[in-house]
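Quick one, probably user error.
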């Protein structure tokens, strides 16, 4: 009987199972482990304010950490008091806290990343196991900002962990849910993600121009240089891994840019194999592109098996030492002076420009310019809230910076209604189906980081389609992360009955909302027990031997009828026709 080790990854509703034989390995010295923290996330330019009651708007946060097992890290997040009531420290019903939230670990649920001790939560100095931090100042008035700090502890098992947080007034009300979370990556050692590539921040340069990078490489041996498309990272919804669309165990690389100089020597290709570090253990390289709107990230890695590829696991995590440089977008040359009709392709409000869909020109703007929507004057802040990919503008452009240009949005697609799919299930791990999960998908042309109002109505209609005239009430606000067009919100522990949902974003100029509606869903009386996931399809996508038996190197794709996520160290048991069982 053959025996195999199976590695399992669940992504959405599909699992990839790879069979491999045990490998004898010589004793190796323990690998070092070095932590790092990613760049901070800047606050929005104009948070809401003066809303009656207790309210809070997210106002920036520190970067996501990559930690070694058992290591501690301090995180910071800012919230702007967007309500009309002040927050008073030490007074029940008026003191602001950050609570654990959906979807991980769940609202008011303990977290394995921190707490006050007991159960699954280590003692990291939180007020309690489901209260991450308390307001630091004695009083935070309307229009003021509170900077919350808390400590997290990396679990011992390598992997990616998420901590969602939401502000609340203890004893009174939960405040707005902006979908704020911390992504904590725990490394096993400096064999993965261990090559530091600087700069790590994003930047834009014109087509034909260049950006210089430096990779710091520890140990001996050479490294390979390549590119990935920026949109392909991260490859998983929990924020990790590199894309491997064809599931061949190799990261998808890009040819949209070239390495013009490597350690001072001319190159001109998009992939360079085995570059020896300089005496100071660095590799320097310069990147450029002739492709307008190409957006890439340089990747540096040790090609341990010399296959001219960056190998990845079934969970899309590289299995060879690697590192990523900051994103670089190659924008078209600046537009010429004159009248233009522009369909927007890319927008950078941080760098104050947008490009056209024809990749012909870049349009830069500043506070000296005139902004309109349908001929009606708007401010710079409103313009940046509105402009998004797919919009059409009538532009009277002045290439000289001192001369004012006019930007008139004639077709605005940035806040169109999302699609909303509602599913009744046990989203919180309970024994019965009494939660509703909403998958919210915005049009690709919608602006990034806009706040969607999620609303619910109890309904007595038997129609499958939800009635726009029902009595909807807002549950929360939720943003969709930049780089993604979808999110999941879980409405937990509902009473027996029928429900409808709608989701929409408020136009900052007109105040109107374009809602997307779910289908009608029902929590049964009594609620149904949890239905286990079922495999709908299983097929061998790569066979290293017999199609009827498990062989070393087999890759099996299994599609399930419901969305699943593999716990840390999760395994799947499979059995072939000769009775071999493998976990």
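Nope, works fine. Designed sequence:
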């Amino acid at each position: 009987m053959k025996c195999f080790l199976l590695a399992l990854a669940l992504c959405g509703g599909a699992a990839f199972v790879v069979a491999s034989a045990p490998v004898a390995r010589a004793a190796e010295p323990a690998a070092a482990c070095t932590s790092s923290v990613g760049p901070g996330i800047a606050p929005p330019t104009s948070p809401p304010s003066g809303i009656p009651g207790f309210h809070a708007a997210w106002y920036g946060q520190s970067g996501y950490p990559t930690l070694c097992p058992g290591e501690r890290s301090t995180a910071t997040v800012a919230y702007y008091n967007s309500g009309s009531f002040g927050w008073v420290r030490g007074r029940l019903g008026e003191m602001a806290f950050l609570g654990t939230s959906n979807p991980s670990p769940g609202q008011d649920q303990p977290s394995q990343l921190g707490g006050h001790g007991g159960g699954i939560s280590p003692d990291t100095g939180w007020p309690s196991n489901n209260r991450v931090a308390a307001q630091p100042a004695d009083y935070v008035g309307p229009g003021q900002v509170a900077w919350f700090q808390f400590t997290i502890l990396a679990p011992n098992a390598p992997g990616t962990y998420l901590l969602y947080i939401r502000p609340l007034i203890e004893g009174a009300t939960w405040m707005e849910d902006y979908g704020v979370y911390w992504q904590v990556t725990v490394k096993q050692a400096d064999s993965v993600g261990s090559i530091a590539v600087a700069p790590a921040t994003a930047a834009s340069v014109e087509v034909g121009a260049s950006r210089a990078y430096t990779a710091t490489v520890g140990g001996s041996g050479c490294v390979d240089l390549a590119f990935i498309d920026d949109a392909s990272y991260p490859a998983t919804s929990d924020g990790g891994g590199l894309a491997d669309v064809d599931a061949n165990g190799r990261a998808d690389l890009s040819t949209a840019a070239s390495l013009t100089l490597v350690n001072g020597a001319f190159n001109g290709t998009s992939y360079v194999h085995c570059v020896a570090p300089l005496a100071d253990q660095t590799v320097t390289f310069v990147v450029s592109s002739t492709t307008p709107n190409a957006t890439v990230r340089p990747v540096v890695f040790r090609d341990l098996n010399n296959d001219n590829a960056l190998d990845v696991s079934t969970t899309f995590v590289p299995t060879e030492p690697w590192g990523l440089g900051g994103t670089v977008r190659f924008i078209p040359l600046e537009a010429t002076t004159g009248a233009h009709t522009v369909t927007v392709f890319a927008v950078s409000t941080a760098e104050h420009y947008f490009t056209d869909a024809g990749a012909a020109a870049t349009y830069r703007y500043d506070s000296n310019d005139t902004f309109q929507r349908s001929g009606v004057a708007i401010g710079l802040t409103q313009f940046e809230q509105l402009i998004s990919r797919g919009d059409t503008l009538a532009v009277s452009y002045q290439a000289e910076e001192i001369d004012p240009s006019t930007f008139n949005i004639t077709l605005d697609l940035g806040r169109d209604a999302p699609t909303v799919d509602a599913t009744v299930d046990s989203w919180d791990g309970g024994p019965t189906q009494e939660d509703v999960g909403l998958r919210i998908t915005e049009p690709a042309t919608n602006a990034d980081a806009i706040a969607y109002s999620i609303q619910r109505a109890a309904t007595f209609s038997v129609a499958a389609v939800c009635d726009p005239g029902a009595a909807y009430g807002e549950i929360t606000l939720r943003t969709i992360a930049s780089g993604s067009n979808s999110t999941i919100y879980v409405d937990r522990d509902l009473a027996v009955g029928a429900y409808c949902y709608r989701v929409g974003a408020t136009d900052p100029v007109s105040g109107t909302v374009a809602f997307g509606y779910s289908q009608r869903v029902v929590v049964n009386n009594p609620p149904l027990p949890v239905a286990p996931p079922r495999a709908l399809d299983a097929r061998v996508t790569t066979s290293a031997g017999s199609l009827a038996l498990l062989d070393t190197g087999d890759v099996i794709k299994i599609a399930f009828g419901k969305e699943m996520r593999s716990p840390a160290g999760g395994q799947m048991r499979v059995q072939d026709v000769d009775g071999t069982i493998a976990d």
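Confidence is low (pLDDT under 50) at residues 1-32.
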